[in-house]
Design goal:
The chain is about 25% helix and about 10% strand. It has about 260 residues and is α/β, with parallel strands linked by helices. A four-stranded parallel beta sheet has the order 3-4-5-6, with no helix packed on it. Strands 1-2 form a two-stranded antiparallel ribbon.
């Protein structure tokens, strides 16, 4: 109440008239609107600001300095950018999908929407089968020891239908234009000379089967409402120490792509 009365008194005092009807103080023009050549968002280490859009004007000056100058020729184009993003691991999808809907929706909107304080991720990588950051090791066509499935009759998306695909569907509802890239950490163990999910290389007699494995994956994800924009042939192709993992040299990749995939 005291604060309100003070405001009223201040306004009343500023509106007193001189004789003849003129104001005691001339009218004050409002400050010009803030114009900035650069919009920027700030996150501080002490978390006092978390991806907050700043209201400070950042403008380019004209004074010379000794720093190198980078000039951009907007008339020349060398390449285009598909988008910006990161990997959504199976483990991350598991954790995200356990959140209550309101918390999960808030998180996914912060990451993938174009809201004022959102990151607006536009490209996402996922694993074909398990990665080394999944809770379980699996492919889409695991077989008992000594058995194979060259027709891929047992192919299924298995664990991805539990958490990964539901999370991807929610993300695509928020950002339908999101592009998804998929990478395998390993072919099914029975296709490899290690007969294991760890290390080893793809056996040449299964190159055509593995090519069909990629096709079935893309078609199966599409049937679930998840369009795959692109694939890579192998994650970390020269590192066979993770579980899962697979060695695939550049010559092997070229052979597989040219003659099978």
């Amino acid at each position: 109440i005291i604060f309100f009365l003070f405001i009223v008194q201040a306004i009343s005092s500023s509106c007193q008239k001189k004789k003849g009807g003129s104001s005691v103080n001339p009218p004050i023009n409002p400050p010009p609107p803030l114009i900035s050549e650069v919009n920027f968002w700030l996150t501080k280490g002490d978390q006092s600001a978390l991806l907050e859009k700043q209201a400070i004007a950042l403008n380019f000056g004209t004074s010379a300095n000794q720093h190198p100058t980078i000039e951009i020729d907007a008339a020349t184009t060398y390449q285009t950018i598909e988008g910006f993003g990161y990997t959504l691991t199976g483990g991350s999808a598991d954790l995200i999908n356990t959140l209550p809907f309101s918390a999960r929706n808030s998180l996914l909107r912060e990451l993938f929407s174009n809201d004022p304080n959102a990151i607006g991720v536009s490209y996402l990588r996922i694993s074909i089968g398990a990665s080394d950051l999944s809770a379980q090791v699996f492919s889409y066509d695991d077989m008992p020891a000594g058995q194979t499935d060259v027709t891929l009759q047992n192919f299924n998306l298995s664990y991805d239908t539990i958490n990964l695909i539901p999370v991807l569907k929610e993300i695509l509802q928020i950002n339908p234009g999101l592009k998804i890239l998929a990478s395998p950490w390993s072919a099914p163990g029975w296709m490899k000379n290690s007969n294991s999910s760890i290390g080893g290389s793809l056996l040449p007699q299964y190159y055509h089967v593995y090519a069909n494995y990629f096709v079935k994956y893309i078609q199966s994800m599409q049937s679930k409402g998840i369009p795959i924009d692109a694939i890579t042939i192998q994650n970390e192709p020269l590192h066979g120490g993770n579980n899962p993992s697979m060695i695939m040299t550049s010559a092997e990749q070229a052979n597989f792509i040219k003659n099978n995939l």
